[in-house]
Design brief:
seven-stranded mixed beta sheet, 55% strand, four-stranded antiparallel beta sheet, 119 residues
């Protein structure tokens, strides 16, 4: 099992920045990739960004390209999401997720952290 704990959410004005953290514990050697998803009120949970655990390949949804940066720190088993130039439409609960090799399904999820961007 892998446990994921997010932190770093909060309230920020439009144009501001936040950095989310996702600390992984447990069988982290099973992790192939981690990702951030977000869910706004009354909407589905959407993919935001992902990064492979070993190779560092990153992918982003178009709406955050150039504004968000996903990264990972092996020494701390932590994945970060640096969010810049935040917009009110970025307001959502942000979830960290992880998946193992041989699957595209994210099996492990954190509890989520709220990000609110005021206009």
């Amino acid at each position: 099992q892998v446990q994921l704990v997010e932190s770093g959410g909060g309230l920020v004005q439009a144009g501001g920045s936040l950095r989310l953290s996702c600390a992984a514990s447990g069988r982290t050697f099973n992790i192939y990739a981690t990702a951030w998803f977000r869910q706004a009120p009354a909407k589905e949970r959407d993919f935001v960004a992902s990064i492979t655990w070993s190779g560092g390949r990153a992918d982003y949804v178009d709406s955050v390209k150039g504004r968000f940066i996903i990264s990972r720190d092996f020494t701390k088993n932590t994945v970060y999401l640096q969010m810049n130039s935040l917009r009110p439409e970025d307001t959502a609960v942000y979830y960290c997720a992880a998946r193992g090799t041989g699957t595209y399904k994210y099996d492990y999820w954190g509890q989520g952290t709220q990000v609110t961007v005021s206009s």
